[in-house]
Amino acid sequence: MKLMMMAMVTTVAIATPVAVAAQAAPAGTDPLVYVYAGHLLDRPGKPMRGPSTIILRGGKVAEVLDGLAEVPAGATLIDLKDHYVLPGLIDSHVHLGSDRAGQEGLLAGFTESRQLAAYETYWNAQKTLQAGFTTVRNLGDDGATIALREAIARGWVSGPRIIDAGRSISTTSGHMDGRLGVGDDFADAIPHDNLCDGPDECRKAVRMQIGRGADVIKIATTGGVNSRIGAGLGKQMFDDEAKAIVETAHLYGKKVAVHAHGADGIIVALRAGADSIEHGTLLDDEGIALFKKTGAYYVSTLSTVNGYLERIAANPNAYSPEVRAKIDWRISITGKALEKAVPAGVKIAFGTDAGVSKHGRNADEFELMVKHGMTPTQAIVAATVNAADLLGIASDVGSIEPGKSADMIAVASDPLADVRMLKQIGFVMRAGVVYKQ
Questions:
Q1: Residue 74 class from Cβ within 10 Å (0-12 exposed, 13-18 middle, 19+ buried)?
Q2: 429 with 86: CB under 8 angstroms?
């Protein structure tokens, strides 16, 4: 697939990561790019605009005009006048380090090299970007994604903008203990410096991730569905441990995302000042009240069920018995917490837990969010404006406005009428670079 450029006013059709603004320009200036949009949802939550022109310079939005403005000589034109244009989407909960789970994922950790794992991380990032997700928050892996974040930022490789958590933190035998399900002879070989017991160790664990370059801190206050241990999904961290983690992270200016299924673990995290709750499966009235009081975001990750169902269909023994029992429970209860949170006015940010669900299939989450109580508009706001706010980057992404990064996508039909259109994204731009058309 090749970049096609014509002289003077240039119409671009492109699918490789080449800057559309690559045309010659007067010395000391950035080339102008004009994007024609037939319909423009520049600020999700506000009304859809009709024909519009988005003027880009230096990878940022310079101006947004009503109508299809005349394109000056020397500028590049991207013609999307038959399409609906939206801001680039944001997934607030991914794990780029793997697209495999269960026994397959465990085996890969022993049989495949870290170098190969790094390439898998890059491959998953490409699938994510092609799906229209120009920004992601990666909530835990062995460190490959931090390296990929830096490579993307330096322009060495393409990929979405990444906000990364380093290694996720939990207590010993908690959800983030990679030694669970591994025999004693091999367990000590698995890194476990992300584990902490007691406030002092938990403060140190946070500082260690910050030292590694983490943008955000991810912790688990409850057990997890994929944990290879039959210890349930209730609270597995004491109040003083959670408080020590959150206070230390906030001391360094980092937000805290909390894996929590059980109501008791949700409450512990919110009382400690967590910035978001991931999964929140057993959300109750007390939890909802704390969400409203603290202003924390809820990230429901509904599409994990798709990943589970597909893997089980392909291999009924994909998961160990203790994990399979939790999966069956998770499938049966998925969406119930969101059905409580939406009418209560809890702030919602979009997140999939891709890595459990499939990378590149992130937009499946939209359909499930609408199924469980959100309007298409609310779901799109969750994946743009709200997610940008949660990630702390609302000044740069989340809407198409002057001064913000030129991140945008386009679809053939109105996603506000049928949110499933976001599974069929035909155009992707990040920071003024077109990656798909």
A1: middle
A2: no
